[in-house]
Amino acid sequence: AQKVTQAQTEISVVEKEDVTLDCVYETRDTTYYLFWYKQPPSGELVFLIRRNSFDEQNEISGRYSWNFQKSTSSFNFTITASQVVDSAVYFCALSGFTGANSKLTFGKGITLSVRP
Amino acid sequence: GAVVSQHPSRVICKSGTSVKIECRSLDFQATTMFWYRQFPKQSLMLMATSNEGSKATYEQGVEKDKFLINHASLTLSTLTVTSAHPEDSSFYICSARDALPSGSSRPDEQFFGPGTRLTVL
Fold first, then answer.
1. Tens digits of per-residue pLDDT, B6-21?
2. Where is B91: in which H helix or E strand?
3. Does A95 lie at the interface with B, CB-CB under 8 angstroms?
4. Which of B21, B38, B93 to mutate to test the interface with A (most CBs of A within 10 A)?
5. Which contiguous run of DSSP H or E holds residue A32?
6. How confident is the model over A3-28, as pLDDT tens digits?
7. Are B19 and B78 in contact (CB under 8 A)?
8. Residue A88 half-sphere exposure toward CB, CA atoms < 13 A
9. In Å, how far are A76, A78, A82, A95, A109 from A14, measured between CA atoms?
10. Given pLDDT bands bounded at 50, 70 and 90, which one contains residue A56?
């Protein structure tokens, strides 16, 4: 069974602060994908990143960065110099590679509020 | 590319009526589509996997007779909530997987629709 844990439920920061969203996962698969999605108040899911299990390189995209640590089964997401527009719910998700295992399992989400 | 639409975006209906939600892949073919339900302030829960030309596979606890799924073409899947009740009020989101991924679309990637907010009075 797959499981994604996002222990933080709500985070509030002041604009320009850095913030890290934690994600811990469990899977018996040896190959899998990890994702982060953003869900603004409009409700539409915005894809942020997908990493596969054999690529542990950290990734940076503008103000966003991701730290994948297989040893601790974590895939944390950091927003640098946060902005009000970053306010949203952020979901971490996990899927296997093929067939029934390719279903997405979502964490419970973290509500991020960035105050001006 | 890889755009998924849903219609309607918002629907309000009376208890006991049936509501149909459409999910379309606009610029790619999708042999597999997924239906999720999201209650307020909760996560997305997979309801069923819809395969073109065959019966949908429902997750445990989801009533297939209540949530009818039809995937009649490579670009359209529909979810019908039959005899809707207030407890069915939720945000329903579909996603589609590109049958022929190329270019910017990667294998097994799911593209999400904008969601349909259902309110049953």
1. 999 999 999 999 999 9
2. strand B90-97
3. yes
4. B38
5. strand A32-39
6. 999 999 999 999 999 999 999 999 99
7. no
8. 19
9. 20, 15, 8, 33, 20
10. confident
